[in-house]
Amino acid sequence: MPKKNIVIVGAGFGGVFATKKLAKKLKHNSDYQIVLIDKHSYMTYMTEIHEVAAQRVEPEHVKDDLQHLFGREKNVKLVTAEVTSVDHDKQVVSTTRGDIPYEKLVISVGGASNDFGTPGVKEYGYELWSIEDSLRIREAIENNIAAGAAESDPKKRQELLTIAVVGSGFTGAELVGEFIDQRKVLAQTYKLDEDEIKIVMMEAGDMVLKMLSDRSLADRAEKYMTRHGVDIRKNSKVTGVDAESVIFADGSHLPTKNLIWTAGVCAKKVISTWGFQAGHAGRIDVDDYMHAINEDGKTNPNVYVAGDTMNYVSQKTGPVPQTVEGAENAAKAVANNILNDLGKAKEAKTFDQVAKFHGYAVSIGSHYTVAALMGWMNFSGFFASLAKHGINLYFYSQIKSAFAIFHYMLDEFFRTKNGRNPFRGTISHQGNTLWALPLRIFLGVFWMMTALGGLGVHDAAYWQGGLMPFLSILTGAFLLVGIFTWPAAALSIILAIFAWIFNGFDITQLFVIFGSIALMNGAGRNFGVDIALVPLMEKVFGLAWYGKAKSQYDDLKK
């Protein structure tokens, strides 16, 4: 008997959360499988794409391969395709890979940038609502600043060296913050004074970050941006964009070739043809239980909506915000109610019954953040920046991706360039591990001689007989040839600590401990076996645990 499909369209926050929860609860149920459809083979961490656009991190940082996320869930089938239509009567989703029948359907395709029909935005500007958008901005800013540095005509130079961001919401403010950091790097690279690179933020209303209920936090963010040279223009409605400038309602112009539009969010146009009732900004209207409302006004009991695709007014928050927590809360309700439909949950639950909002953190670049958490913690600066990273890591823990957590820590703290992390780069310098080679050889010889009793007066600081000589020889041998250097260095530290405990303090132990710590930064990758072994192990164990990552998936044809 073929399995029944719970089809989830969209691998954004809402789709991934719902898939994870349903996969766990239906793990031992052989009647159903979850089919996750997305046009990409990866999930894009949308709240970090501004970091890609301004070159703080590389594009791979915001892309989590779906096989890495769901490789362990055998009841999840991945399909890389675009949905073209939904047949409500036959309960079939039509995709670019064929038709897929569904027992239950979840629509979570995310949103799109809303330019409100402003002339010239799509032709001459840039939007930020996908990884592709962020890469276009990244390339354009770099190229235009380079061209501006070489341009002698004052008018053309100003156009090329002015970065203009329309919109002062979360996305706009965070992007401006990243440009503040990037400006210093660009100025050094192209031999410019920093103040030659203009950053302008335009807001049609009379306040920035108007979605912040605590206006003191918005004021702090505004002061930070102003203090770092951002020209904030409130009550400046953009009515058009041409090849050389931004046009305002009063007829004035701002010369620029770097216009980024972040002023609005709407539903993706494709869903307008799927037979559902459209609410605010084209989003699908839903009831309290996240059921989609058909275009005839009737509730569809087999179709649910989550994330930026849904239009719902909560008694707790008013209109549900287009945030990660908004998507997560909707996904929780969707998963619970699908399980209830299948007889696997105690009761159906409304959005407000499951919804919990812990707050928000808005980063204005890598060094400054404003945060309001748990309803009472309002703070800004360094600790707020750490809180923002904590929120991101909490999300990864929610989807149970240790792989994503590990790489997030590397990319955001230990591999960042130009001091662009909360610690201003003090923990992220990547030195040449070649200089650790003499230390690695020295400690390798040290442990070999310790085991063989060749240290003279230092032998008393360690021990003879039993397991310890074997561990010492093993540690020394591994360090000498550079194999499993990180575990060998960790074992070196443990052996030194044991010697300290059982034989008393000797200054040699401190040297061994700190020297071993220094070797834990990939010291085996220079003239060592680890240079080939570590990548091989990552490939073999990654393949065994997650499966093979692909550019496209079609698990239903297996």
UniProtKB/TrEMBL annotation:
TM stretches of this protein: 357-379, 391-410, 434-455, 467-487, 493-519
Superkingdom to which the source organism belongs: Bacteria
Pfam family, one: Pyr_redox_2
Catalytic class of the enzyme: oxidoreductase
EC number: 1.6.5.9
GO molecular function, one term: oxidoreductase activity
Domain (FAD/NAD(P)-binding) ranges: 5-325
Keywords: FAD, Flavoprotein, Membrane, NAD, Oxidoreductase, Transmembrane, Transmembrane helix
Catalysis: reaction(s): a quinone + NADH + H(+) = a quinol + NAD(+)
SUPFAM superfamilies attached to this UniProt entry: FAD/NAD(P)-binding domain (SSF51905)
Family, as annotated: Belongs to the NADH dehydrogenase family.
Protein name from the UniProt record: NADH:ubiquinone reductase (non-electrogenic)
